[in-house]
Amino acid sequence: MSEQGGRSVLVTGANRGIGRAIAERFVAAGDKVATIYRSGELPEGVLGVVGDVRDTASIDAAFTEVEAQHGPVEVVVANAGVTRDQLLMRMSDEDFDTVLDTNLAGAFRVARRASKGMIRLRRGRVVLISSVVAMYGGPGQVNYSASKAGLIGMARSITRELGGRGITANVVAPGFIDTAMTQALPEKQQQAYLAAIPAGRFGAVDDVAAAVHFLASDAAAYISGAVIPVDGGLGMGH
């Protein structure tokens, strides 16, 4: 168990990919880990509560259940997200609204509910999972890029509001990570992406989980409002 082990940690969307790796990392450190998710198998040791980040009442009920079993949430990781890629002129209002409501407003609902307990505790860690496209952009991703860029302003505003209460809010911006979504890309497209990444490889989900775990640790107590890229040098801070 790490020095931070035993905290109440909540990760949204821990059933697959990056969210799953993040949850497993906290479990391995001895934390009490819960997730709000919609469906799928969860990692061992993770308390699963079915909920929808697009619905405030659903989030409130999920947090209430987690708090009853694990105590007030001390670390929250807003990871749940969706894509609806489409070229700008073909993108429907529904494509845009669904992505913004899930990725941006969903993170807001989760952070807002988590902040209640953190303010009482006078400590807390909020970590929002963004993307390299937040600042780098991506064709066909006007909705996704906008939703992920919005998380940066959100984390910085939370930092200014709650920084004096022992609460930090940071953003992790993964690049191309080796997940099912990346593996499904055509080989030619994968090679083009690899050529643009200085590290010469796609990232692993554990690379992202390690950054999140660090930001939630005592070692990162004086880091807030930061954007931590985990992208092999692809974005170069942009």
UniProtKB/TrEMBL annotation:
<protein>
    <submittedName>
        <fullName>SDR family oxidoreductase</fullName>
    </submittedName>
</protein>
<comment type="similarity">
    <text>Belongs to the short-chain dehydrogenases/reductases (SDR) family.</text>
</comment>
<dbReference type="GO" id="GO:0016491">
    <property type="term" value="F:oxidoreductase activity"/>
</dbReference>
<dbReference type="InterPro" id="IPR002347">
    <property type="entry name" value="SDR_fam"/>
</dbReference>
<dbReference type="InterPro" id="IPR050259">
    <property type="entry name" value="SDR"/>
</dbReference>
<keyword id="KW-0560">Oxidoreductase</keyword>
<dbReference type="Pfam" id="PF13561">
    <property type="entry name" value="adh_short_C2"/>
</dbReference>
<dbReference type="InterPro" id="IPR057326">
    <property type="entry name" value="KR_dom"/>
</dbReference>
<dbReference type="InterPro" id="IPR036291">
    <property type="entry name" value="NAD(P)-bd_dom_sf"/>
</dbReference>
<feature type="domain" description="Ketoreductase">
    <location>
        <begin position="7"/>
        <end position="180"/>
    </location>
</feature>
